[in-house]
Amino acid sequence: MNVLITGISGFVGSYLAEYLIEKFPDAAIYGTIRWRSRTENLTQVNGKVKLIECDLKDFSSVKSALEQSNPEYIFHLAAQSYVVTSFHAPQDTLITNVTSELNIFEACRSLKISPVIQIAGSSEEYGLVYENELPIKEENPLRPLSPYAVSKVGQDMLGYQYYQSYKLPIVRTRAFNHSGPRRGHVFVESNFSKQVVEMEKGIIPPVLKVGNLSAVRDYTDVRDIVKAYWLAVEKGEPGEVYNICTGKGYPISAIVEMLKSLSNVKITVEPDPSRMRPSDVPVLIGDSSKFKKKTGWNPEIPFEKTLSDILHYWRERVPEKASTAT
Ligand code: GDD
Predict the structure, then answer these.
(1) What's the 47 CA to ligand 1 centre distance in angstroms?
(2) Which of these, 246, 127, 134, lies nearest to 179 by C-alpha position?
(3) 123 near 175, Cβ under 8 Å?
(4) pLDDT surpassing 80 at residue 325
(5) Among the CATH numbers 3.30.710.10, 3.90.25.10, 3.40.50.300, 1.20.1380.10, which is that of 188-217+247-283+300-317?
(6) What is the pTM of this model?
């Protein structure tokens, strides 16, 4: 079995590679990386995955990656995934996210191959959701509130269209927020955890800088998410779209409280206006019954464990404060 993971060196990609290697020891796992990609997330799979240098925005580069890997399954995870960056660089976000996917589809057509392709959509596509629409089902209107969200709607619709037009076996997933160790430090639960660890080590004062604490998000552990992605290509219906989530919403303020209970530092909270967005999605709580019914997936890791694992991750990585000579 040949598998190709775009964005293998990223947060989710690295966990997916580990999961597939353990589940299918004989599979050949390929992953695309850019020349400047950092590969520290891949230490556990070093030598067990085949890395292909590829710029997904370049059609010939994508075609060559598909020729080299000849995949039966493609997990398309590579993306500009930070909402805030998409406000600063909307054009790059749209081009990166939509063109890369288009290149994969067109390369499959050009090579006359038909791998099962998972498209990693996002709950951000739903955007503005009204109270009476919760928990969100797949049929909910999409009201995106950021260029990132629009790019994910574009990816989602492109997947739908290429299935309808060319019968490429594309399964679209809409994952709600997911986290765990290795989560990029810009995302809220990882950012707050890192700040707390810097306080514990005396690097910064015990003042937590925060943005909008009233937003509500539905968190799944990344290790449950990668199992879902495999089930999506194994048991999902091509042409269909599936929510992946736990159905439990946490206000961001609850993350602050949980971190306070996991640390001995006396933390005070300080709003930082630079952390506010031009528009923020107020609430995302999903209904994943369609996916669960189709695949039997069930998330197992509670958010409290995810958060404590992230703290542990940062405690191991944030260097101790250099002692000043007296
Ligand atoms: N990043 C960040 N930093 N967010 C903050 C902060 C802060 O200091 N303070 C409050 N927030 C709020 C944001 O305004 C948002 O409402 C919420 O915390 C979560 O922000 P992020 O962690 O940046 O994630 P996101 O929900 O915008 O997007 C993530 O989840 C999507 C799925 O719903 C990303 O992983 C996306 O790539 C993913 O598609």
Answers:
(1) 33
(2) 246
(3) yes
(4) no
(5) 3.90.25.10
(6) 0.97
